[in-house]
Write a structure and sequence with these properties.
CATH architecture of the largest domain: Up-down Bundle
GO molecular function, one term: DNA binding
Shape: elongated
Pfam families: FCD, GntR
Protein name: DNA-binding GntR family transcriptional regulator
Strand content: under 5%
Order of helices and strands: HEHHEEHHHHHH
Radius of gyration: 20 Å
Structural class: mainly alpha
Keywords: DNA-binding, Transcription, Transcription regulation
CATH superfamily of the largest domain: GntR ligand-binding domain-like
Number of helices: 9
Length: 232
């Protein structure tokens, strides 16, 4: 629960408090949507949300505006606020953009990645391979964190603040809405092989190959996710 902001006679102080409260509420609502606590496609009631989180309408509307900017909700005069639906069409649009942006990130990382960042990326790749080696064929695997770490590391190494913001703050959270339902060891092993190829190209400081390998990797993931969404 978020505590209501303390009233004050100073507009400047009040503005700071409200901004902080709206930020906290934005974070809580974002996580509630991404974790499925607030279902996809559900209508958002401002009075109920204000009551649940113990906040006034001002901070709540600021938080909802930010959720709309991040494309987690839609708002209209006729239908109010509603959490987005996870559709194959939206997923396809998302991965089209992701393929271009992550290709650029891999290209830039091949040129700009530092020695310590290469070591961190190597550790991520090797840990993912080691985790896969210890899994049993019949066991469902969930190595999503290793996958996210790999892509975050490359994005950060691009040294492009705009690109980092687009990927890490906007695109990656949206991808969490489309968790694959057909996850298995074979698919994870394929992903690990593709990660290794991207890593090798970055270590070789070959931006052309790094971009090509990353774009192929994203295109492959795109096909799997769309299939899972349609038939899973």
């Amino acid at each position: 629960m978020i505590h209501q902001e303390t009233k004050t006679s100073s507009p400047e102080v009040s503005g700071v408090a409200r901004g902080t409260l709206a930020e906290q509420l934005f974070d809580q609502l974002t996580e509630a949507i991404l974790q499925g606590e607030i279902p996809l496609g559900s209508k958002l009631s401002e009075p109920l949300l204000a009551q649940k989180y113990n906040v006034s309408r001002g901070p709540l509307r600021e938080a909802l505006h930010r959720l709309q900017e991040r494309r987690l909700i839609t708002r209209s005069a006729n239908h109010g606020a509603r959490v987005i639906e996870a559709t194959p069409e939206r997923l396809n649009e998302l991965f089209e953009v992701r393929e271009m942006l992550e290709g650029l990130a891999a290209r830039s990382a091949a040129v700009n990645m530092t020695g310590s960042e290469r070591e961190a990326l190597r550790t991520i790749v090797e840990n993912q391979e080691a985790q896969l080696a210890g899994l049993q064929p019949e066991v469902h695997t969930a190595l999503g964190a290793a996958d996210r770490d790999f892509h975050f590391q490359i994005a950060q190494a691009s040294r492009n603040p705009l690109l980092i913001g687009l990927l890490c703050a906007e695109l990656y959270p949206l991808l969490r809405l489309y968790r694959s339902r057909n996850d298995n060891i074979a698919l994870r092993e394929r992903s690990a092989v593709e990660h290794r190829r991207i890593y090798d190209a970055i270590i070789d400081k070959d931006p052309d190959v790094a971009e090509m390998m990353m774009r192929r990797h994203i295109a492959s993931a795109r096909a799997r996710r769309i299939e899972a969404l349609r038939y899973g």
